[in-house]
Write a structure and sequence with these properties.
Penicillin-binding protein 2a (Domain 2), 2 domains
């Protein structure tokens, strides 16, 4: 800035020469300088006032906006925060083949306490003990009055419980939002779904991880955020599953069985439409696993369909007949020597009753002759029988997509001798799961092709290798049909639905060797409709006993077969199968001519 001198020499000299007073020039310059200083000060003041006004305007705008936001939002409790990695809470739904929800996520809250912020810890503990009877009042008082700064109270609470805790009014009791896994159908398909639990946990979130069943098998898929809008679709049909569970539960009670399982499988796609294991559980409140030394089959967590490895008795006889026919060793009407007992060293093989000295292959299956089946096995030989059983998947755990299936390792003979070959042919000496049996019968039903059992919905047939010829498979189906119409499964006939199948009654082994005298595993493996099978149904009862007669009856024909027949009667219409109505007798009226 250029300052103007108060007494400029040129003007002073000019003023003196003209007789003017030089002091006036100085006073005028002072006045002008003061006016300039005043104008600059006023400009600065006005600028400061403008900035201050803008600041107050912005502050009031922020406060007003925040107040409006709070007024339109739901009130929440204050939450403690802590640093750490983010917790992924998203988990995809699980649906049945028709899109019905089997498992989904549900918003809930957790309850925790910060004792330093509590007003009356003892009163809060007593109030919580009344709201949650499962909590220990003395333990809560000890935790709240001690040196702890954080205490988990409940990991999941209902809205009603949250309101009750809120009414206690203690600022040290806080809520944390989280999502939990919900199974809206309760016990339905419990062993397939398995269950989920909390993994990594925080006060504001908790990740949901699978602990069993498909929840654990497909845990990575379900937790992937990219699949949030793509639910995992299973092959199960919810309505068929509900009907099957209801029938099997009633049958288990009527037959006084310890447990039961059923499998309904599509013979062309391998899709398991329904799988039931009883006793079951509610996956929303999954029970704890049994303690060590405890018989696992007693636990409701035990999945009998895939983990239950049993000798399935005479249901295996059709495999021997099918293989013998496929190899060209026999035909359906080939006569086999059935004189008994059949001796092999110190061992003897007997039939349930005397069926005569000879039977055709068809009659061996219809009457369920152990001796006749053992004769077929002798012709087949150990090597070929073992190869055939391997092709049916009977020597490895079933590939069914739940984690428990890997525990269903078949029990094989240490030495696959000629005696083992004979006993395996009629279902003893080789222990498999009912799921293995369902896959084996599906191969016979669909023309001799192996299909892998699956819990996932398929787009069409999923045929594997050809195990037996279509000719041998068709002959086997005709034999199984006669078992129902003429043989041991006569209670399995369902009007309108031609049922074919085979019974199997096997003595139950003792834990330390040997067999029980009065405990059996009763199984009925069936297919329907017999002329063009679309589904295989396997029903197995553990220790059944039908007690309406003079003596208890434990064979599958009296126990498993009636249960399976009722199940087919209930589920066949649900599967879209129309009954074949046989024409009735016409009225006895004739037209007489005059």
């Amino acid at each position: 800035m250029i300052r103007t001198p108060l007494r400029p020499l040129a003007r002073i000299l000019s003023a003196r020469a003209n007789g003017e007073n030089p002091e006036l020039i100085e006073r005028e310059n002072i006045r002008q300088r003061h006016e300039q200083m005043r104008d600059r000060a006023r400009g600065r003041a006005e600028g400061r006032l403008l900035v201050l006004g803008m600041f107050f305007f912005c502050a009031f705008a922020v406060v007003g906006g925040r107040m409006g936001l709070l007024a339109t939002s739901e009130a929440v409790e204050p939450r403690a925060s802590a640093g750490g990695s983010a917790i992924a809470t998203q988990r995809a739904d699980i649906v049945d083949r028709n899109g019905s929800i089997l498992a989904t996520n549900f918003e809930t809250h957790s309850l925790y306490a910060q004792p330093p912020h509590m007003i009356d810890p003892v009163a809060a503990a007593e109030g919580l003990a009344q709201i949650f009877p499962d909590l220990d009042r003395e333990r809560l008082i000890k935790d709240f009055t001690g040196k702890r700064k954080f205490v988990w109270v409940k990991k999941k609470i209902s809205p009603e419980q949250k309101q009750a805790v809120h009414d206690l009014g203690d600022p040290g009791l806080l809520f944390g939002p989280r999502e939990m896994r919900l199974y809206p159908n309760g016990r339905l398909a419990a062993h397939v779904l398995g269950g989920a639990s909390f993994g990594k946990e925080g006060v504001t979130a908790a990740e949901v991880v699978g602990v069993a069943g498909v929840e654990k098998q497909f845990d990575a898929y379900l937790r992937d955020p990219a699949n949030g809008a793509n639910p995992l679709q299973l092959s199960l049909d919810l309505t068929v599953q509900a009907a099957a569970e209801q029938v099997l539960y009633g049958g288990m009670k009527l037959m006084n069985a310890k447990g039961a399982t059923s499998i309904l499988m599509d013979v062309h796609t391998g899709e398991v439409i329904s799988v039931v294991s009883l006793p079951d559980f509610d996956p929303n409140e999954r029970p704890r696993p049994p303690t060590s030394g405890f018989d696992p089959s007693v636990s409701p967590l035990f999945n009998r369909a895939v983990q239950g490895v049993y000798e399935l008795g005479s249901t295996f006889k059709i495999f021997a007949a099918a293989q013998a026919m496929d190899l060209g060793l026999v035909g359906p009407e080939t006569i086999i020597d059935t004189r008994g007992p059949l001796r092999w060293g110190k061992f003897r093989i007997n039939d349930f009753r005397n069926y005569g000295n000879e039977l055709s292959v068809t009659k061996i299956i219809v009457k369920s002759s152990n001796i006749g089946t053992a004769r077929l096995a002798q012709q087949i030989g150990a090597a070929r029988q073992k190869q055939f059983m391997a092709a049916l998947g009977m020597l490895e755990p079933t590939p069914f997509e739940i984690v428990e299936a890997q525990g269903g390792q078949p029990l094989l003979p240490k030495n696959w001798s000629e005696l083992s070959t004979m006993t395996i042919s009629y279902g003893h000496g080789l222990s498999t799961s009912p799921m293995h049996l369902a896959a084996g019968y599906s191969a016979i039903a669909n023309g001799g092709r192996y299909v892998k059992p699956t819990i996932l919905k398929q787009d069409g047939p999923q045929y594997g290798p050809q195990i037996i010829s279509e000719r041998a498979a068709a002959a086997s189906r005709r034999m199984l049909r006669q078992v129902v119409t003429e043989g041991t499964a006569s209670f399995g006939e369902v009007p309108g639905y031609a049922v074919a199948g085979k019974t199997g009654t096997a003595d139950k082994p003792k834990p330390r060797g040997g067999y029980y005298d009065n405990k059996v595993i009763a199984t009925f493996a069936s297919m329907f409709p017999a002329h063009d099978p679309k589904y295989v149904l396997v029903v197995t009862l553990d220790e059944p006993s039908e007690n309406t007669g003079k003596k208890p009856r434990r064979t599958a024909g009296w126990t498993a077969v009636p249960v399976a027949a009722e199940m087919i009667r209930r589920v066949a219409p649900l599967l879209g199968l129309r009954p074949d109505v046989e024409p009735g007798q016409s009225a006895a009226i004739t037209l007489a001519s005059n």
